[in-house]
Amino acid sequence: MPGLKIGRLASMARCTVKAVRFYEAQGLLPPPTRTPSGYRLYAEQDLSRLQFIRQAKLIGLQLAKIKELVLHLSEKECACPTIRPPLEQMIREQLKDIGAKHDQLALLKEELEGFLAKMRRARRRLPEALCACAKGSGPGSATLLKIRRRGGE
């Protein structure tokens, strides 16, 4: 009987059987044919579709967007003219998001490096943002050691 069993399909697509079942349940993969004993049998096109889904996930597309795209893969004609424009747009959006995240991470890195430098310069006392003892001693002051002891170490 021709067709790929779910384990073989998952192995060829480098994903788990659980992922294949999930994509099927979400409508990303069409329901497979079944053997008389109930085993799923997938066609070669299902492997191509599963590989497309995996690649789309790797570039950061959400499942809802991937589902929009895979609907075109079931058509008999070449899907490239239909899929290319929205896929390119989605990739551009992902690149923009990655750029924004990169900028945020660069800023965070800069802030953390500055904070670490302040801590090193202070040597004995931490910056005011972390430790009340940096503001001076008094009834409300607490050191990190006191806080640590209260927490039960």
Question: Can you put this structure into words, describing what you see?
Answer:
The chain is mainly alpha-helical and 153 residues long. The chain has 2 domains: 117 residues, Multidrug-efflux Transporter Regulator, Chain: A, Domain 2 (Orthogonal Bundle); 30 residues, no CATH class. 61% of the residues lie in helices and 3% in strands. It contains 6 helices and 2 strands. Strands 1-2 form a two-stranded antiparallel ribbon. A hairpin with a 5-residue loop joins strand 1 and strand 2. Helix 1 crosses helix 3, helix 3 runs antiparallel to helix 4 and helix 4 packs antiparallel against helix 5. It is elongated and about 75 Å long.
Offer a few descriptive terms.
single chain; 153 residues; mainly alpha; Multidrug-efflux Transporter Regulator, Chain: A, Domain 2; 2 domains; two-stranded antiparallel sheet; 6 helices; 2 strands; elongated
Rg estimate, integer Å? 27 Å
Number of strands: 2
Largest sheet: 2 strands, antiparallel
**DSSP strand (E) fraction?**
under 5%
What do the pLDDT scores average to? 81
CATH architectural grouping of the largest domain: Orthogonal Bundle
Number of domains: 2
Summarize the structure.
Helix content is 61%, strand content 3%. The protein has 153 residues and is mainly alpha-helical. The longest helix is centred in the middle third of the chain and has 43 residues, at 80-122.
